[in-house]
Amino acid sequence: MMPPGAGGGATSVGRMCGIVGFTGSSSAAAPGPEGLAVVLEGLRRLEYRGYDSAGVAVLADGPGADGTPPGLTSAKRAGRLARLVEALEESPLLEGSTAIGHTRWATHGGPTDANAHPHLSADGRLAVIHNGIIENYAVLKAELQAEGVVFASETDTEVVTHLLARTLAEQPAGGAGALAESMRRVCRQLDGAFTLLAVHADSPGTVVGARRNSPLVVGLGDGANYLGSDVAAFIAHTKEALELGQDQVVQITATAVEVTGFDGTPVTPRAFTVDWDAEAAEKGGHPWFMDKEIHEQPKAVADTLLGRSDAAGAMVLDELRIDESTLRGIDKIIVIACGTAAFAGYVAKYAIEHWCRIPVEVDLAHEFRYRDPVLTPRTLVVAISQSGETMDVVMAVRHAREQGAKVLAICNTRGSTIPRESDAALYTHAGPEVAVASTKAFLAQITACYLLGLYLAQLRGNLFPDEVAAVIGQLHAVPAAVQEVLDGAEAVRALARELVDAPTVLFLGRHVGYPVALEGALKLKELAYIHAEGFAAGELKHGPIALVEPGQPVFVIVPSPRGRDSLHAKVISNAAEVRARGARTIAIAEVGDDAVLPHADVVIRVPAVPTLMAPLVTVVPLQIFAMEVATAKGYDVDQPRNLAKSVTVE
């Protein structure tokens, strides 16, 4: 993930903001502050999506005491949501049961009160919130300024607000659907990736939204309806939802939902039911969401395996909508992903090539299109994304399909863009992952990749049925192994507190231990802001060993002594090399491996599992280590600086 930009140029920088919209009738939301309460609750659940600033706008339910027309009031503050709540306590807004809210991860303009959302029209009767980036905002802004429009912020979003106000003024006064029609007209002028929500004082009880290349879902309530950048926005109120597709506008009232394309063509969105509840998104007594999610990893793996094999151990992946004959003819697999998900892809490469004898490439999604990849109808592209909205992956998926390749999505979020735009989807069942740094989604992604590899091996005859059943049995034993690591985590926490002042940490691994080393380093960078690097252990002598000096902490992911060839001995030799140069070596080694003892200052034990299953247990101590170092430093583990949960534009 890239850090957010602070300037106003149309740079392709990722942003993920939290968006909530709500409108209800008096039977569902008593007149008064209910709309604001619902939105603030949704923002609290979405704050992981953006926490540089927050804001709300509320439409009054009726005319003022003096007979003035229904009005719109808003408030916004830089900083965490708590600052906005404090401001609202000091200066309450008008009471109303229609509201929108936003938590921001800054790109255009720094995190200031002025740049926070909502952005209001000059007359203060229109409010707009936005997730994404308007790539042609500079041209549009120049046109508006030439007309005399004065801007109050540095954001691209304010351009949309003034365009919408101008377009709305051109509509018949009080016309039904005028706000939605104006939104459609404005969206046709915009380039980029965006989700937009708008309310207007002349359209009481109505929220209008739009999406292009950025997430937006509808929640269906009883006498109330909701909009959110993900289902966490309304999960406390309803599990019934609608998917919104590309280039669509939605208008919600308390009793109706209307969806059209940007061209005005009516659309029937697909309904789905959310398979987790509000309690799943709460901390449950843990100090951090990340701590909770680390402890949910045994269940995440078990749930991802659930129902994917029959009583005989044969793979059953009914959700794969790609014809079996096509899958049998696949001659190359390319995994596309970013960050932690890409490391899951690196693990998958070892397993799928071993089981299926199909060459596997792993591409960072943001590099994929630009290297002119060789794709044919016999290429299977596997797109991995927790959120299903990672824009780099979305664009790579589109490119792959344009070139004739089949695309299979591995995703944790139903109704999201990547599964919808792929030929097939294999869902992980990790439940909501709120912490910005991914943990349980990583293990679930690896598990899903293993399921895909075993299914292909079964389908193509690379493995006998009893071999497939044996590996499935090994996978079903993993949750207990992960739980064993969690039960013994105090030694890792103590080590983290001891190394809290280390200026840099190195991680070494080979084979499937190499992506684990990369992930361990990434977690430490993300959470503790410590320089950390992961290396293939064999690369040491080709340069990185120059970094080793007395006291340098080096984690060594030691493969099983029962593993392939002589990798165990080679990694032990690497540990000896760095220790001889003064490094403090920390070995992640399986129970009973005494060969590491002469070459390690600290040994963290993990249960013995088959080689290909090892990443599912060896990465867990590294997650805990990074979390504990960040905690000891006094940092916010769930919301590390400069990062958001997903990057929803390129």
TrEMBL record:
PROSITE patterns: GATASE_TYPE_2, SIS. One of its GO terms (molecular function) is carbohydrate derivative binding. One of its GO terms (biological process) is protein N-linked glycosylation. Residues 17-255 form the Glutamine amidotransferase type-2 domain. InterPro entries: GATase_2_dom (IPR017932), GFAT (IPR005855), GFAT_N (IPR047084), GlmS/AgaS_SIS (IPR035466), GlmS/FrlB_SIS (IPR035490), Ntn_hydrolases_N (IPR029055), SIS_dom (IPR001347), SIS_dom_sf (IPR046348). Signal peptide: none annotated. Its EC number is 2.6.1.16. The active site is at C17 (nucleophile), K645 (for fru-6p isomerization activity). SUPFAM superfamilies: N-terminal nucleophile aminohydrolases (Ntn hydrolases), SIS domain. It holds the Pfam family GATase_6. One of its GO terms (cellular component) is cytosol. It is found in: Cytoplasm. Residues 322-462, 495-640 form the SIS domain. Homodimer. Catalyzes the first step in hexosamine metabolism, converting fructose-6P into glucosamine-6P using glutamine as a nitrogen source. This is Glutamine--fructose-6-phosphate aminotransferase [isomerizing].
